[in-house]
Amino acid sequence: MKYRKLGWSDLHVSEISLGSWLTYGVGVEADAARACLDRAFELGINFIDTANIYGRGAAETFLGEALAARPRDSYILATKLFFPMTERDRGLSAAQVEKQLDASLKRLRTDFVDLYQCHRYDDQTPLEETMRALTRAVESGKARYIGFSEWPADKIRAALDIPGVARFASSQPQYSLLWRDPEREVIPLCAANGISQIVWSPLGQGVLTGKYRPDAPPPAGSRATSEEMGGWMDRLLARPVLEAVERLKPLAAEAGLSLAQFALAWVLREPNVASAIIGASRPSQVEENAAASGAEVDPALFEEAERIVAEAR
Ligand SMILES: NC(=O)c1ccc[n+]([C@@H]2O[C@H](COP(=O)([O-])OP(=O)(O)OC[C@H]3O[C@@H](n4cnc5c(N)ncnc54)[C@H](OP(=O)(O)O)[C@@H]3O)[C@@H](O)[C@H]2O)c1
What we know:
10 helices, TIM Barrel
């Protein structure tokens, strides 16, 4: 496993990290979830991403329990706030930052998170109020660094312009061969300001493993077949997307990689990406995906892959 510096921070995160949306505490049963986490640590993954909203606290509760026996300095832990935890508890007000961070720490059974992220931008709260609250979270030692997820470029810029507040170290956008939006504005802006990307759904929720075929039903046991986990895949399972993914398979084979590894190596070719946050429902997936770290791929194969996907749009 290789590691990359997270923005201007002193955190060195594994190029492949493990997330917990839909999976841990929700759609993947606890033994399998623990096995994934154990395998991840064995393979050198040191970075775990979660959020208060995942399973409305259930993912954090699972992680708190599963991580309890490990030395706190042996892993880097990131969580987030914004989405509604109750009818009233939502957004990025000062009161919510304080309340949600304390609740996350309690579930995670720790005194601090390494990275506290704003899950989305909150139009209902003045940005300065949020930034001052995040600054207090850092000063209190409860959050070592702060980040955001899916903030528009103008809001990122506005936050950077506020004097005397904690500086963002990370940005968490969706990014994959199937979703390249961050390349337009967010990546250049962040690269110029010491902010790294830690990217979500780098495998397009599993579509970029090639296991969903255009002419066959989704394989048994896959996310697309799961009542709890399969609700966010429509765009990804569209026929032109699946046909394009079929055409990527020979390119991955030429690179000597599985398609999942090829897709992760593509994400990691971007120097502003510090880590690809994968999901995993079984340890063998963690193994396959972790092996993408350090893979060297002829850029011509990546260019061909980009051309194939662009044609499918
Ligand atoms: N900030 C945000 O708004 C946001 C949004 C979404 C996610 N995230 C973060 O990003 C993380 C990753 O998102 P994601 O789960 O969508 O990522 P992903 O890595 O694109 O998809 C993960 C899923 O694909 C399947 N898979 C993974 N590796 C595989 C392999 N080698 N072979 C076959 N199938 C494989 C598994 O599902 P099955 O085995 O069930 O098919 C797995 O759960 C989340 O856990 C979360 O931490 C953040």
